[in-house]
């Protein structure tokens, strides 16, 4: 049996709104964020086969959790969901600027120049360390409505996209840190184990 007109009108209205949540800090994140040492952060994410209302619901809860934790990005793995889904908002104080939702993102190319930038991660709270990455990336993905998109990103957006894409592969920024001394000190200060870092350099 097909859905009633009221049901269809309801889902059409929801779909056309995409993923919109108030940019506010809640008492608790709707989805708890896993931290370094938790094996869920190391599992690879699977492709999303269909961008439907369930995916948008998850993206909404990820955004609420991200705003509550004062982050500018969040990957599904951080809330224990192994899907290729990430949300980004570089402007969380500005309600007029909508957040980005990236489904099945793929990096198409890296620029040749490198930058050093001090990164942090909601899954390694309080630890901020320099990471070297390409300045520019070209990425293709589906948006929250399943529409194919392409984007060339530099600056903080390029940085954030690369950091989030690492999460989809079970990689954390501390795995990329080259300054051993700062790494050991930073982790120790916040009570994290050096053995939970899987250095890739
Ligand atoms: O909130 C975040 N800030 C940040 C700063 C520099 C580089 C990357 C980031 S992403 C991080 C949120 C997070 O952990 N996303 O996975
Ligand atoms: Ni992170």
Report the CATH C-level class: Alpha Beta
Question: Cofactors and ligands present?
Answer: ligand GNR, nickel (II) ion
CATH topology tier name = Peptide Deformylase
Q: What is the helical fraction, as a range of percent? A: 25-40%
Biggest β-sheet: count, sense, barrel? 5 strands, antiparallel
Strand content: 15-25%
Number of separate structural domains:
1
Fourth-tier CATH superfamily name: Peptide deformylase
Radius of gyration over C-alpha positions, nearest whole angstrom: 18 Å
Order of helices and strands: HHEEEEEEEHH
Mean pLDDT score, rounded? 93
- Shape descriptor: globular
Oligomer status: single chain
Q: Which CATH architecture?
A: Alpha-Beta Complex
Topology, pairings included?
Blueprint: H1 5-17, H2 53-68, E1 73-75, E2 85-88, E3 100-110, E4 114-119, E5 129-134, E6 137-142, E7 148-153, H3 155-168, H4 180-189
Antiparallel strand pairs: 1-2, 2-3, 3-6, 4-5, 6-7
Ligand GNR is lined by residues 71-75, 78, 119-123, 159-160, 163-164, 167.
Describe this structure in words.
With 201 residues, the chain is of the alpha+beta class. The protein has one domain: Peptide deformylase (Peptide Deformylase, Alpha-Beta Complex), CATH 3.90.45.10. Helix content is 26%, strand content 21%. The chain has helices at 5-17, 53-68, 155-168, 180-189; strands at residues 73-75, 85-88, 100-110, 114-119, 129-134, 137-142, 148-153. A 5-stranded antiparallel beta sheet has the order 1-2-3-6-7. Strands 4-5 form a two-stranded antiparallel sheet. Strand 6 and strand 7 form a beta hairpin. It is globular, with a radius of gyration of 18 Å. The site of ligand GNR has 16 residues, from strand 1 and helix 3. Nickel (II) ion is lined by residues 121-123, 163, 167.
